[in-house]
Amino acid sequence: MNVDQFTSAHAPTETGEQFQTENSYTLDVAVDGSVMVKAGSMIGYTGDITFTGKSSAEGGVTGFIKEAVTSEGTPVMEAEGSGHLYVADQGKKVQTLDLDAGESISLNGDDVLAFESRVDYEISTIDSLSGAASGGLTNVYLTGPGTVALSTHGDPLVLTPPVNTDPDATVAWSAELSPSVATNKTFEVGQTSGEAMQMEFTGPEGFVVVQPYEETTSRQ
After folding, report:
1. What's the CATH number for 16-210?
2. Residue 112 CA: distances (Å) to CA of 41, 162, 180
């Protein structure tokens, strides 16, 4: 294709939605006020937008944690102003969810890409997994109303409990579920694998989101 065809084919689209995906890997946020986005996720913007980082000097932790809860800070930034903000995360696919008032979801902090400033967020520590897995012990508890954008390595799979999952491949679950530890005793002592330590979801309803990838390095 020629230059005009290339620029036309890949130009942003205007839909009137605040959160819209320009392609599988890029989120276009129409900013008119403020929005919360993952630190380092900005790839471009138009208009007049300023950024306020919320990450600590120590680099924060995996997950978005309010500084009121922990001194480690939170790897999230607030974008304020007016314009279009384009965010992406290491070539991961972008998914958007609209939460109704009072509707909540628990997300692995590394997979949260952006959310409306009106969405309430707080730390959600999975005590039952403490010391049992390489990470994923701290999730972000997001409560609507508002839109949330998350990123996944590949296409997500949504499972219905009862189900066991690899902690490093688990992206999110509905708020009514509370995972516990399940251990595969057939593994030899000293072996390490996601199959040896699992998250067990046994609630009568709800859903669990997994991805075809294990984020072991990002959950330390």
Report:
1. 3.60.160.10
2. 11, 25, 22
